Amino acid sequence: MKYIENYKRMADGIAALMHPHAEVVVHDIAVQKIAYLANNYSNRDVGSPSLMDEIDFADGDTLLGPYRKVNWDGKVLKSISIVMKGPDEKPEAMICINLDMSEIDKMHQVLGLMLGAPEENAQIDALFQDDWYDRINQSIQEWLHGQNLSLQSLNRTEKRDLVLALEDKGAFQGQGSANYVARCLGLGRATVYKYLKEVRR
């Protein structure tokens, strides 16, 4: 991408201004991969799939959101995506800003103020319906809630049970999903594959 260095500097500037609460992700639309991450707290890697190939950009589309997402650690994120066009006026990149709302949500709960992330939006849900990062995050939090456990307190057996529960939900169909789950659970990639191999026999 010709202008990637400019987008990197933009991402670094936004992340620095809002540090440590904002993560900025630069997606290369041409190859559908993450080109850069500033203040990475979503456990994704540069070169990972962007999962945006199902998004159909209309000519006038420049801004998507704000919309609500859940991070792998359960934190609520308020996100917005900005379509960046090249000299030919065709979309070449998307810059996604993910704002950690956990501290504001605490204030919201205590003070009763309307400061939470926006309600789910059907249009946004449709755009990101194939985002397996988000589906895995939601599934992890649902399982933890159902078991009355926290991610930080899981022992090895509980982590294995969670991996198997994610497999049962079809969470490992996305490219790189096993690596992502391994990072979220603090497991080695080989360990996750071992658990999956056991259940797939």
Notable features of this structure?
201 residues; alpha+beta; five-stranded antiparallel sheet; 5 strands; globular
Please, could you describe this protein's structure?
- The chain is an alpha+beta fold.
- It is 40% helix and 20% strand.
- It is built from seven helices and five strands.
- Strands 2-1-5-4-3 form a five-stranded antiparallel β-sheet, sandwiched between helices.
- A hairpin with a 5-residue loop joins strand 4 and strand 5 (91-100).
- Helix 5 (156-168) crosses helix 7 (189-200) and helix 6 (177-185) crosses helix 7.
Gyration radius over CA:
18 Å
- The class by helix and strand makeup works out as alpha+beta
Strand count:
5
The side-by-side strand order for the widest beta sheet comes to 2-1-5-4-3
Unreliable runs:
123-129
- Number of helices in the DSSP assignment: 7
Q: How would you spell out the order of helices and strands?
A: HEEEEEHHHHHH
Shape: globular
What's the story with the biggest beta sheet?
5 strands, antiparallel
Mean pLDDT: 84
Helix content: 25-40%
Strand residues, percent: 15-25%
Please give the alpha-carbon distance between the first and last residues.
43 Å
Outline of the structure:
The chain is built from 7 helices and 5 strands, in the order αβββββαααααα.
What's the SSE blueprint?
Layout: H1 4-17, E1 22-28, E2 33-38, E3 63-70, E4 76-85, E5 91-100, H2 102-111, H3 122-127, H4 132-147, H5 156-168, H6 177-185, H7 189-200
Antiparallel strand pairs: 1-2, 1-5, 3-4, 4-5
Helix pairs in contact: 5-7, 6-7
